[in-house]
Amino acid sequence: MTSTTAARAPHTLTAKGQATRARIVEQAAELIYTKGVHATNNEQLRRAAGVSGSQLNHYFPTKESLVLAVIAWQAERILSFHRDERFAGFDNLDAVRAWADYYVGYERAYQEGCTLGSLASEIIKTDLDVHDELAGAFDQWRGIFREGIERMQQLGRISTEADPTQLANLFLAAFQGGMLLAQVAQDIAPLKEALQAAIDYLQTFATSPDVDELQAR
Q: Is the dihedral of CA 129, 131, 132, 134 positive or negative?
């Protein structure tokens, strides 16, 4: 495949076509995650997805169009998880702690790493014109934290002196950096410590009710 044409829009497909396309994207995401962008080829993808060459080219006429679809798929998984009701829109300190505890307590976290982060590290090495879409996915992820912190301020849970954008960047950076170091060390400790440090900093902006709650623990 060349790298110039956009992917066929999913909403133009039949239900069967959408299912086939989704299967190709999921298998492509797995192959790219395990083998990398350059090492993933059409033959591997056809076998993994159980499709013909003509089907693959029908849905994804270029490598660029396929990578764009993988970015969208990985981003949707990450964003949907962070928008889950268990995290209450990240509008309180307990929700942020619950998010950190999930990853720290997930026994395979340091083995699997961050799928979107891994994809980003692969793509920035290529000349594929997909950087805007990748940046957009991270912007949405960062936005979830930022909007949660803004709501904390509106609800009087943290001081208005806190900078929501700065804190959102801190949490995303702590997660990405901590996850990478955890993978290298094959130990969850770097991720745990990075996330805890970010939470500790957020707590310095907590108003009295949150501080009292923290001391009561």
A: positive
- Residues 74 and 77: their CA atoms lie apart, in Å, by 5
Q: In the numeric block, which tokens belong to residue 95?
A: 């929700």
3 vs 18, 31, 58, 139, 175, CA distance in Å?
22, 18, 14, 24, 32
Instruction: Please tell me the distance from the alpha carbon of residue 195 to that of residue 188, in angstroms, as a whole number.
Output: 11
| Joined tokens for residue 162 | 């806190």
| Cβ atoms 210, 203 nearer than 8 A | yes
Work out the number of other CB atoms within 10 angstroms of the CB of residue 141: 20
Closest to 113 (Cα-Cα) out of 178, 38, 174, 196: 178
Q: What's the pTM? A: 0.83
The predicted-structure confidence for 157-211, as pLDDT tens digits, reads as follows: 999 999 999 999 999 999 999 999 999 999 999 999 999 999 999 999 999 654 4
Contact between 85 and 149 (Cβ < 8 Å):
no
Question: Do 75 and 144 meet the contact criterion of CB atoms below 8 Å apart?
Answer: no
3-class state of residue 206 by DSSP: strand
Give the Å distances, CA to CA, from 101 to 109, 112, 115, 158: 11, 16, 19, 21
